[in-house]
Design a protein that fits this description.
75 residues; mainly alpha
Length: 75
Amino acid sequence: MKDIKKYKQQLQLIGKNLKKFRIAKGLTQKQVAAAVGVSVNYISKIENGNVLFSINLLCKFCVLFKVQPKELFED
């Protein structure tokens, strides 16, 4: 089990930004999950900052939302 406690603040920021980009594109969590190849439950956990996820998945989000990786980390 990976310890997410030390990354919680960053994960919450990334999740908040992903949700913002998703809503701006008019997409549901289900649509995003299908586009990046994960479950809806996993998307929910990411948006709430409750799970660590791969760089590969981060890149898929960037392509889907047409954003640079740094935009996911900006407050």
